[in-house]
Design goal:
The complex is a heterodimer. Chain A contains twelve helices and no strands. In chain A, helix 2 runs antiparallel to helix 4 and helix 8 runs parallel beside helix 12. Chain A starts with a helix and ends in a 6-residue tail after the last helix. The chains are: A mainly alpha, B mainly alpha.
Chain lengths: 274, 272
Amino acid sequence: MQSLRVILAVAKKDLSTLFRYPTWFISVIIWPLIFPLLYILTSFAYAGPDKKGLIVFQKVAGTENIMGYIVIGTMVWMAVNITMWNYGGYLREEQLRGTLESNWLCPVNKFSILLGAGIISMVLSIMFSVIGIIEYRLIYGIKFTGNLIDWIVVFLILFPGVYGLGMIFASLILWAKEVNAAVNVARGVMMILCGITYPIYIMPNWMQALAKFLPFTFGIQAARDILIMDKTLLETAYNLILCSGEGIIFLALGMLIFKLVEKRVKISGSLERF
Amino acid sequence: MSFLNVLKARFLISMKIYFRYPVNVLMTLFEPLMWLSPFYFMGKAFSVNGRIEGFEKYTGNSDYIGFMVLGFMVSAYVSMIFWSVGFSLKDEMRQGVLESNWSSPSNRIALLLGRTLFQFLATTFEVILIGIVCHFAFGFTVNKNILKAISFLLPGIIGLFGLGLFVASLVLIAKEAGPIVDITNSTLNALSGMAFPIKVMPRGFVFISMILPMTYVNDSIRALLLGQTPLMPLYKEFLIIVISIFIFWLVGSYAFAKVERKCKELGILGTH
C-alpha cells in the first residue's frame, strides 16, 4: 500500500513537471511524422524517379507496403527512445536537480520511485504511438491491418523489454553519471541491429546473431506481421513469445542491477555527486 | 569585461565540462555507426550488383554512402550550434547561474558564442573521426577537393551561428530547450537534404529547401568531394551561402536582443 502511494506521488509530481513545459506536445505531434519521413524519402531516393527500385526492396522485405514497413520500425524505436530518455535518465535528472539524495533518505522502497517514474514515460509512449498511427493513416495514407486487441497485445509484449532496458540504464547512469552516452548506446544498438528500416537478414551473419538477443527485433517483426501483413496473433506467436520472454529476462536483469547499484552508491556516498 | 575575455572564459568552461565526461568522446566513434547503419543496410536492400540505379538518376553516381556520410558531417555542425546554444541556456537556467551571469557587465552574444566556440572545435575533431570510422565501416572515400569544400562549409557555419541566436530567443521564451532544438534541428537537416536528394520531396518542400543555405552547403560539398551533379553552378551556391550569413545574423541578433530586453523587463531570467 505504501509502495502504491510512493508510485502515485512520483507520477503526480512528474505529471505536474510535464505540464509545466507544454512544448513536449509539439514533439508528440511532429516527431512521429518527421522521423520516419527521413527513411521514407531516402527509400524514394534509392528507388529513383520512376520508383522502379521499390520492386527490389519489396522482394527483400516481403511486403508491398514499404511505408508501413518503415513507420512500424521507427514507431517502436521511438517508443524505446522516449523511455530511455525519460525513464533511463530519471534518476540522473533528480541528481542534477539536487533532490535525489533527499528522496533516497525517505523510508520507502527505492524501487517504487523508479516505478512511479515509469508511468510518465508509459503515458508518453502510448500517446506517441496512438498519434503516430492516426497521422500515418490520415497524412501518409498507410493502411493498417489487424484489430485493436491485436495491436494492444503487440504493444504490451514490448513493455517488459523496454522497461527492463530502461531500468538497467537508470541504474548504470546513477553510477556512471552520464546520460547521453548511455542512451545513445541503447538506442544505437537497437537502431543498428533490430532492423527498423530493413529486414535483418541483409546484415552479416554475426550481426543477425546479435540481433536475436534483443526482444525488439522480434517485437518489430510481430508488429509488422499484425499491422501490415494481416497475420493473426497465432501466426506470429513465435515472435511474440521470444519478444516477451527476452523482455522478462531484461526486466529481471534490470531489477538485479538496480539493487546492486543502490547498494554501491550508498556505500560510496556518491548519490549527490554529478 | 571585454568581448574576447568573455569568449575565453566561456571557452574554458565548455572545455572543462567536455573533458569531465570523457565517455562523450568515445560516443563519437559509435554515433556515425548508429545513425548511418539504417541508411547503409537499406541501401543494400535496394542495390543490385552493388549499384542503386534509381539513386544514380538523382545524383549522377551511385555513391550513396558518400552522400550520407557528408550529409551527416554537415548535420553534425548544424546540431552542434543548435544544441550548444539552446542547451547552454537551459543548463544555466537549471543550474541557477543564468541570471547571475547575465547580471555581469558582459556581452550576451559573447556569453552564448563562447561556449559554442569550443563545441565547434570539438565537432571538427569529431567530424574527422567520423570520416575515419566510416572509411573502415562503410568504405567511405572522398577526392582531393577538401580545401574547396571547406571554403563552402565555413561560411555556412558562420551563418548558422546567427540562426542559433534565433533559437536561443525561442528557448528564453519557452524556458525549455529539448523540443525546440530537436525539431528545428531535425527539420533543417531533413529539408536541406542531409539524407536524401531534395528532388524526392513534394514540390512545396523543394521550394522551402531551395531557400535554405544549408541545402547549398550539402549540395556543393557533395559535388566537390564525390563528383555528384549539383543543383546549380557552384559559384551561385557560394553566393547564396555568403548572403545568408548577413540575413541570419541580422534576424538572429535582432530577435535575441528583443527577447532579452523583454525577459529583463519581466524579471523572468531566474525562473524556469
